[in-house]
Structures are given as structure tokens and as C-alpha cells.
Automatic annotation (TrEMBL):
Domain of life: Eukaryota
Protein name: RPW8 domain-containing protein
UniProt record, GO biological process: defense response
GO molecular function: ADP binding
InterPro entries according to UniProt: Apaf_helical, LRR_dom_sf, LRR_R13L4/SHOC2-like, NB-ARC, P-loop_NTPase, Powdery_mildew-R_dom, WH-like_DNA-bd_sf
Assigned keywords, A-Z: Leucine-rich repeat, Plant defense, Repeat
SUPFAM superfamilies for this protein: P-loop containing nucleoside triphosphate hydrolases (SSF52540), RNI-like (SSF52047)
């Protein structure tokens, strides 16, 4: 055989590389194949050139080079053919893609066979004394079968501490999710300190899991700043080259994992942070029984369903705490009630139970009582436990990375509400829309709430069985924050001097004002948000505060008689007022009339308040745009026709009335507030009639009358509401007909009439419905769908959504949700 000189190899490689790059730029086809081939050539060719030099020194034959050049020439022909294939030639694209893959593999196979592996190269290196060959050769051998056969272990699985409590059920549930055939990625999600990593370790050491995956279990801690290149380096206990980019790292990872197949593989990625969703997608390779288990403080809905790890119940919390805090022989002199109170203060967090328990281990009773007293005196558990503070603080600090402070501000605002209470989503949205200039209509506010839930800082709970979000309406949702995260927010806020705080959280027990009255006497507080919580023993006698910057005031009360603080009338910037009664009976409000002096007040929310007691003292609220009543006594106020509501609320845009059981008839004065755009009356089971004058509300766009079970009819005058776009009469059980001229609602786009049994019994809808040209969607029961489908030839854009449900679901939807104080 005629031997070819070194220069010939360089020329052929150079020509092929130029051709690959050129074709890759000119066509979108085979881009990934060309990239892999280019990397392969760049990796393999320098080795051949080095070997060629050694062969020349040793006067050794050059068969390898000749055969390699032959491979390269065939590759040039294949690449040239690929450049002529068009995007629509699907079969050719598929066939030639496979050929390119086979070419890449054949180059590596050739290298391993002809060069005779590591031993042959080592002998050449020893004879010639050229160390550089080994460094470059490792680039290929570490990717080859020869190198992989030397891997004794992968990313080792950390051990589990001696005692794990309360994880039997989570272990069972996650194993079931993990082993599902149709699921590659399983996510365990929870706030920091809940035990996600512990659960992942338990899964890896579980006998059933070990029996399936054997030695092919990789456990890698990702952490906040890691990238995929670093992770791939951690996964395998062999030396890998420096990766030029993430794609190269992912290609190496897939190559190495394939060598371990077809045996099942479990990859555990612990402590994964936001932004890794696409990486997880990219490493979800098509391999036989390949599973990825992720732990994260983020929920990652892309990989739904996500397993949300809960805090420990009382019994398990006590067991875990006792293991950390008490002698192993349980021969402790600490009173049981003191242990219980300390456990209660840890609120079910495994990390807190362990950290606090260890800090108290071996200490006398007086130390325990001193720690407990600090908590009862307003000190935070975070004041003395830096480890716990650091672990949870990470989640809050990470909110700064969102490119603005609004998300973190929204999170910190959650400290305004009492511990353990549900917060209506719309309450938060009202606050944020005004304070942070968010667009309420476009749901910027709600997206922030969803983002906080994604980060496991809150839970969003649907309080009612059936929710159809229309125009972003989400009054059905409540928000729950974990007690520990609330404590963290208050701790972080209270570290700043009072005069510099953006939020002022005031908690008053009985009539003890000693702490706050001193502040009011000597300094001005520039907080934008004020939260004042009082208990059932509060006498409604206030101290004075100067709060000129306040934009939101949240009053959390429990007493049956409550006086609005006098200092509110000096809050010239106040935009949002929220009064929530968490007591056992309605609160009667005094001093409500002083709100008339607030020229910027735009939103008022009242819950469990007796509004009827103040109906004769209603001030003129000239700037008010929205008022909300939830579980309030308002019946007398809304039946008193002597009040001209158009003077009280001259610029009102929205009114919400929810679960107000004494509302029998809507105040006719509401129909004079022509500025109104939205009326929502829901779960008011005694409401039987709407005013005949409702047609005056010519600017009304949304009318929600959901679950008003005794409402008998819709006033005929409502056909004058030409701007009405959405009508919700769902679960209005007694409603038996629509207005005959309903077709004159020319702006109507959506109707929700599910659960309207009276309408389902109709033989036909009013003929005028065929004039609802803009109608896009009707939600109704199966029995009523035919009423609308017969008009679809007239209503070209109409989609009829049929709802199926059993009798129990129907009953649960119309019963007002029980909201305990």
C-alpha cells in the first residue's frame, strides 16, 4: 500500500471541516449532526497527527492514516449529498441523519480498533517521550468503551442520618410516581428545611429502588450557581475534558449514560433552582428505563404532577424533636408541657425541630423557659438560630433576582395578615395593583401570586368546587402562607429601625399600647403599609400615630365592637383599606365616617363586618373605585332606599358582595352608580330579586350572580346593558327563564349558566339569542347544550362547553364554603 504523507491527512481534514461548516450555515437540516461530527473531527484528528509524527520517527507503517483518510473522503461525499436534500423530503432527512450518526460512531470504532487502545499509545509515548500525546488522547479515550469499563462508581449516594421520622407515606407516594412507565421526571418540592434531600436519599437507599437500578444511581447536588458542565463533571468519577459549551456537556453526558444501558438508570438532582427546567428537558434522554428525580424549593409545574412535601404532623414533630433535644433514655427533667410548647413553636419544620432541639439538649429547665419567653415576648426563633435563618432566608433573597423589587415586596407584604389565616387572593391583588402600579386587568398581580406559589412561599387554594376563570377572575382562590415564612418576614422587617421600615406590623394584646404609643409620641413613621392586629379584649381606644406615607392599611380585629383609628384621617396617601374580623361574631364599625376625608382612597375590603350599623353615616367616598363585602351584614343597608348611593360612590367601578346571607334585595341606589363596570354577587342565597332599574348601568361589563339560589328572574331592563360582555348565572337554581329581548345584549361574549336547573328544563331559548353575534362561549350542563347548539348556524363564533358532574359535586358547588374565623 502506498503511504500518504502527514500533509495529506491535514488537507483532507481541513476540506471536510470547511464543507461541514459551510453546509451547516446554508441549511437548517442536520445542524445537530454536523455539530457532533465537527466536534468529533476536531477531537480525533490531532491524535492521528501526533501518532503520525511518532510513526515517522519510529519508521513505523502508516496504515492507520491511510484508512482514516479513506473514512474522511467517504464522509465528504455524504455531507455533499446532505446539502442537496430539501426540508420537505422527510424520508431522506431521516435516512441521512442516521447515516451521519453512523459515520460519527464508525470514526470512534475505527480509532479504538486500529490504534489498539491505551496500551499501544502508552508504549509509543514511552519510546518517543512525548507527554502531550497522552493529554490529547484522554479527550477520546474518556469517551470510549475502554475508559468507561474502568468506572467503578458514579456520583455516590450520601448516607441517611440514624433517625428519620414521618417520611413513610411520602416515601411510598414518591416511589409510586417515580416508577410510572410514562413519567421520566419526578419533582419533590417544598420550602427549605422540610426534608426534601432526606426523602431523596431514602428513595436511593430503598431496597426496591436499589433492586431495580442497582449501581446505576447517580446523586448530584446542583445548588444555586451550578451549570450543566459542572454537574456532568460531578456525575462520573473519571477525568473529562473542558467543555466548550452546555451542548457539548450534554452530548458527553448522553454518550456516557448510553454506555451504562440498557440497565435502568436513576439520576437524582438535589437542590435544583429556577432556570433549570430547560436543562432537565435536554437531559431527559430517550434511554431504556431512565428516571430523573429532582428536589427543589420550586414547584416546576412543567413536570406536573409535582410531589409537595408537607411539614410534620404533631406526633411526628414531637418524636423528631425529642430525639434531638432529650436524652436517649428519655430520662428528662424537662416538663412535658414545656416540651410541647417548644415543639409547637417549631411549627412542624424538620430543620427547626432538629436545630432547636440540639441547641437545648442538656440544658436545664430555666434555659428552655427563657427561650420560650423570648418567643412569647415577640422575639423570633430566627434571632437565636442562624442556621435556620440562613436556610429559609435564601428563598426570600432569591426574589431580588427577578429584575425588580416588586415580587419580593409582594412576599414581604404577606406578613400583614394573622398567622394561620387564609388570605383572599383578590385582597392581595387590590393591594399590589395600587401600591406597585400593577395592571390588575392583565393579571400582573395574579402572576406574582403564582410566582410566589411556584417558589413554595405560599399555597394557592381553591375554596370552591368549581372555578371557571373568566377575564382573570379569581375570587374563588385563597392564599395560605406557612407560619415559619411569616415569622421570617416579620423578623426581617423588624431588624430595621421603625422610622425606616416600609411596612409596620403592629400587634396589640388587650389594651397594652406601651411599645407603640411611645413611637407615636416621638417620631414619624414612613411605612407605606400598616398592619394592626388586635384581639377580642381590645377596647377600641386608640393611641396616636403619624403615618404620612401610608398607602395600605390592614386592620385585623376580633372584637364585636371596633373603632376605626382616628389617625387614619391624616393619611392623605391612603389608597387601600382592608378590615377583616377574625372573631366569632360580626364587628360593628365605629368612626367609619372619617374615611370621607381621604381623597386618594380607591379600594375598601370588609369581611365579617356589620355594615348595616353604619348605613346612616355613610361618608362621600369621591375617589373610591372598588368596594368588597365578604360575609358581612349588609341587608338593611342595601334595602334602605333613602340613601343616594350615587352621591356616596360617585366614581365606583366595581362592587363585590360574597356570602352575605342577609341580602334579600339589592339597594335600588346601586343602579344610579352609572360608572359601575363590574357587579359580582356570589353565594348570597337569600337574594331573590334585582332592581328593575338595573338597565341604567350602561357602562356595566361584567355581571356575576353565581350561586344566588333563590334568584327568580333577571329584570327585563338588563337588555339595555349594551356593554355587558360576561354574564355568570351559574347555580342560580330558581332561575327559570332569560329575558325575551336578551338578544339586545349585543356586546355579550360569554355566558356561564351551569347548574341552572330551571333553564335546563326549557324547550327553547328566546328567539332573540340568534342576535348575539359576538357570543363566543356558553358554559352549561349537558341537558341545556341543545338549547344553544340549534343557534350555532346564526352564531358562527359560538362554542358550547358541556359540564358533566354528579349530584354530590353539584351540591358542593352551591353550598357556601365554610370559612372559620
Amino acid at each position: 500500500m502506498a503511504f500518504i504523507a502527514d500533509a495529506a491527512l491535514g488537507i483532507v481534514v481541513d476540506e471536510l471541516l470547511k464543507l461541514v461548516v459551510k453546509v451547516a450555515k446554508q441549511t437548517i437540516n442536520f445542524k445537530s449532526n454536523f455539530k457532533v461530527l465537527e466536534n468529533t473531527l476536531n477531537s480525533v484528528t490531532p491524535i492521528f497527527l501526533e501518532i503520525e509524527k511518532l510513526n515517522k520517527v519510529l519508521d513505523r507503517p502508516k496504515e492507520e492514516t491511510a484508512l482514516f483518510i479513506d473514512q474522511l473522503n467517504r464522509a465528504k461525499e455524504l455531507v455533499a449529498k446532505c446539502s442537496k436534500i430539501q426540508w420537505w423530503e422527510a424520508y431522506k432527512l431521516y435516512v441521512h441523519s442516521k447515516k451521519l450518526e453512523e459515520l460519527d460512531r464508525s470514526i470512534y470504532r475505527f480509532f479504538n480498533i486500529e490504534v489498539q487502545g491505551f496500551v499501544a499509545v502508552t508504549s509509543l509515548k514511552a519510546v518517543a517521550g512525548i507527554k502531550e500525546v497522552n493529554d490529547k488522547l484522554e479527550l477520546i479515550l474518556d469517551r470510549s468503551n475502554i475508559s468507561l469499563s474502568g468506572i467503578s462508581s458514579w456520583g455516590s449516594v450520601p448516607g441517611i442520618r440514624d433517625l428519620v421520622i414521618g417520611f413513610d407515606e411520602p416515601l411510598k407516594d414518591v416511589k409510586e410516581m417515580l416508577l410510572k412507565d410514562n413519567k421520566t421526571v419526578t419533582v419533590i418540592s417544598a420550602p427549605g428545611g422540610c426534608g426534601k434531600t432526606t426523602l431523596a436519599k431514602m428513595i436511593c437507599h430503598d431496597p426496591e429502588i436499589k433492586g431495580i437500578f442497582k449501581d446505576n444511581i447517580l446523586f448530584v447536588t446542583v445548588s444555586k450557581s451550578a451549570n450543566i458542565s459542572v454537574i456532568v463533571q460531578k456525575m462520573f468519577n473519571i477525568k473529562l475534558p473542558e467543555f466548550q459549551n452546555d451542548d457539548e456537556a450534554i452530548n458527553y453526558m448522553e454518550f456516557l449514560l448510553k454506555q451504562k444501558g440498557p440497565s435502568p438508570i436513576l439520576l437524582v438532582l438535589d437542590d435544583v433552582w429556577i432556570g433549570w427546567e430547560s436543562v432537565i428537558d435536554n437531559i431527559s434522554f430517550t434511554l431504556p428505563y431512565y428516571k430523573i428525580l429532582v428536589t427543589s424549593r420550586f414547584s416546576f409545574p412543567r413536570f406536573s404532577p409535582v410531589y409537595n412535601l408537607k411539614i410534620l404532623n404533631d406526633q411526628d414533630a414531637m418524636s423528631l424533636f425529642s430525639h434531638s433535644a432529650l436524652p436517649k433514655d428519655r430520662n428528662s427533667r424537662i416538663p412535658h408541657d414545656l416540651v410541647e410548647k417548644t415543639v409547637s413553636g417549631c411549627k412542624g419544620f424538620p430543620l427547626a425541630l432538629t436545630v432547636v432541639g440540639r441547641s437545648l439538649y442538656g440544658h436545664p429547665e430555666v434555659t428552655w423557659r427563657r427561650e420560650l419567653k423570648k418567643w412569647s415576648d415577640g422575639k423570633s426563633i430566627f434571632d437565636t438560630n442562624n442556621d435556620l435563618l440562613g436556610r429559609l432566608q435564601i428563598s426570600v433573597d432569591a426574589l431580588d433576582e427577578m429584575g425588580g423589587s416588586s415580587l419580593k415586596d409582594c412576599c414581604l407584604d404577606l406578613g400583614s395578615f394573622p398567622q394561620g389565616q387564609r388570605i383572599p387572593a383578590t385582597t392581595l391583588m387590590d393591594m399590589w395593583a395600587e401600591v406597585y402600579k400593577m395592571d390588575y386587568e392583565d393579571l400582573d398581580t395574579y402572576s406574582n401570586l403564582v410566582e410566589l406559589a411556584f417558589r413554595n412561599l405560599v399555597n394557592i387554594v381553591c375554596t370552591r368546587q368549581s372555578v371557571h376563570e373568566v377575564d382573570g377572575y379569581c375570587s374563588e382562590n385563597d392564599v395560605i402562607q406557612h407560619d415559619y415564612l411569616r415569622d421570617l418576614i416579620i423578623h426581617q422587617t423588624n431588624r430595621e429601625p421603625v422610622e425606616h421600615r416600609k411596612r409596620l406590623f403592629i400587634e396589640i394584646t388587650g389594651n397594652d399600647f406601651s411599645k407603640w404609643s411611645t413611637i407615636g409620641m416621638y417620631q414619624t413613621v414612613n411605612a407605606r403599609l400598616i398592619s394592626i392586629s388586635t384581639d377580642e379584649n381590645f377596647s377600641s381606644s386608640w393611641f396616636d400615630l403619624t403615618l404620612p406615607a401610608a398607602e395600605v392599611v390592614i386592620l385585623n380585629c376580633r372584637s364585636s365592637l371596633y373603632t376605626v383609628p382616628q389617625f387614619i384621617d391624616k393619611m392623605n396617601k391612603l389608597k387601600v383599606l382592608v378590615v377583616t374580623n377574625y372573631g366569632s361574631s360580626f364587628s360593628k364599625l365605629n368612626n367609619f365616617q372619617l374615611l370621607g376625608s381621604l381623597s386618594n382612597l380607591r379600594r375598601i375590603r370588609l369581611e365579617r363586618v356589620s355594615f348595616s350599623s353604619i348605613n346612616t353615616f355613610l361618608p362621600e367616598l369621591l375617589s373610591l373605585q372598588k368596594i368588597s363585602f365578604t360575609m358581612c351584614e349588609i341587608g338593611k343597608a342595601f334595602m334602605n332606599g333613602s340613601i343616594d348611593l350615587s352621591l356616596v360612590f360617585p366614581n365606583l367601578l366595581e362592587i363585590e358582595i360574597d356570602c352575605c346571607d342577609d341580602l334579600v334585595e339589592l339597594h335600588v341606589g346601586v343602579c344610579n352608580i352609572v360608572s359601575l363596570k363590574k357587579i359580582s354577587i356570589t353565594y348570597c342565597n337569600e337574594l331573590s330579586k334585582l332592581p328593575d332599574e338595573i338597565g341604567r348601568l350602561v357602562n356595566l361589563e361584567v355581571l356575576r350572580l353565581s350561586s344566588c339560589t333563590k334568584l327568580l328572574e333577571l329584570p327585563e331592563s338588563m337588555v339595555n346593558l349594551h356593554k355587558l360582555a360576561y354574564l355568570d348565572i351559574s347555580d342560580c337554581l330558581s332561575l327559570s327563564k332569560l329575558p325575551e329581548r336578551v338578544g339586545e345584549l349585543m356586546g355579550l361574549r360569554r355566558i356561564n349558566m351551569r347548574g341552572c336547573e330551571g333553564l335546563s328544563d326549557l324547550h327553547q331559548l328566546p328567539l332573540s339569542v340568534k342576535n348575539l353575534r359576538l357570543l363566543e362561549k356558553v358554559i352549561c350542563d349537558e341537558g341545556a347544550s341543545h338549547l344553544w347548539k340549534q343557534y350555532q348556524s346564526h352564531l358562527k363564533n359560538l362554542h358550547v362547553e358541556e359540564v358533566k358532574e354528579d349530584a354530590f359535586e353539584s351540591l358542593m358547588r352551591v353550598i357556601s364554603p365554610i370559612q372559620l374565623p
